[in-house]
Amino acid sequence: MDLSRDWFRTLLSLLGVCIGVFSIVAVFTCVDSLKATIRSAFENFGADILFVEREPLEPDLNEDGVFRWWNYIGRPQVTEDEYRYLRDNSTQADKVAYSVSFSDVVGVCGDWDMTVQTPIAAGRGFSGAELERGTPVAVIGDAVRKRILEEAGDPLGRNIRIGDAFFTVIGIFEKRGSNAVSTIDVDNARVIPYRAAAALCDVSSARASISLSPKASAGEDGLLFEVRSLMRQVRRLQPSADDDFALNRFSFILGELTEIFDMVNTLGWIIGIFSLLVGCFGVANIMFVSVQERIREIGIQKALGARRSRIFAQFLQEASLLSVLGGGAGVLLVWLVTLAVPSPVVELHLSAANVLLGFGISLATGIIAGLAPAVRASRLNPVDAINS
Questions:
Q1: What is the pTM of this model?
Q2: How many other C-beta atoms lie within 10 A of the C-beta of residue 242?
Q3: How confident is the model at residue 232 (pLDDT cuts 50, 70, 90)?
Q4: CA nearest 107: which of 226, 187, 172, 194?
Q5: By the 8 A CB rule, do 108 and 96 touch?
Q6: Dihedral angle computed from the Cα positions of residues 138, 48, 33 and 360, in that order, rounded to the nearest 10 degrees
Q7: pLDDT tens digits for 332-378?
Q8: Which residues are registered as beta bridge partners of 248?
Q9: Which of 335, 333, 329, 327 is nearest to 362 (CA)?
Q10: Domain boundaries in the chain?
């Protein structure tokens, strides 16, 4: 009965360490995986791309935290003429593209591959002549391809209906899936020349964007200052007038996400520390009981010449081993979760740094928990201990 009670007490103590280490390592693993995914997505899409749009990505909030939508509702949409003005007059831009989006149809012109940065799996992309003339051709996403394939066979080279017109499919994008950074749903998109899109509907109500990537010698800020000046010129804004357009960059989103990640990390530490405190007291309790049950053994060791430092190290090692076992179980549990939980957007990966962090935390917990029992054991009088 006593043996089973000791085992139960030990398991409860190790469970506290396990939960604490699991909480901390799991949070850091999720955050690190998400950071890596977003960083990779930004690199693939182009973190330095500047977007000229009607509304800013950064929310404009008043003192009550309400978005000042009234400041943007009357703003004009960016137009193809403004795109051409920037393309012809910018000295800092390497590529310039214009796009309008309505439903799952995207009209593009210029360096359109900067708008849809997904490789083409079959067929080809648009030629300059097709974009200028508004030729009724389309490049479709993988999900659109599958729907057409089930109904009419291979869509490449076939005519598909978009609105009231027919477009010839000249290319099919690779399957993209969910992506942490994207301006359109590529898999469900039907991309057509802008002038063909303008003939289908009133594009003034669609979401429009001018995309610009800086030259290597320009940098993001140089391009931003130049584009702001050119946009104010083409819209004939007075020097005292505010901008009636927005210059957006993904760097704002990355900054906001960094703050969120820091908050999540802090929360993980708080939860983990409380769990570790429970485990720490549990391990300390086990070691005090162990010292009490082995007083005669400690006395015999001292009588045979064992020094205080050896007794101290013996019990400190036992406490550390118990804690590391609990921490190892927590790290193992995180690894099993990364294998068992599928994620279409973020691939969970347990890094070596987080493994070392988990074992380091559990080792430190064991050392702290074992200090007091180890000190007590090392200070026992050998005669009193043998006669106890």
A1: 0.63
A2: 8
A3: very high
A4: 194
A5: no
A6: 170
A7: 988 888 888 766 556 778 888 888 988 888 888 888 888 888 888 88
A8: 51
A9: 327
A10: 2-41+255-387, 50-249
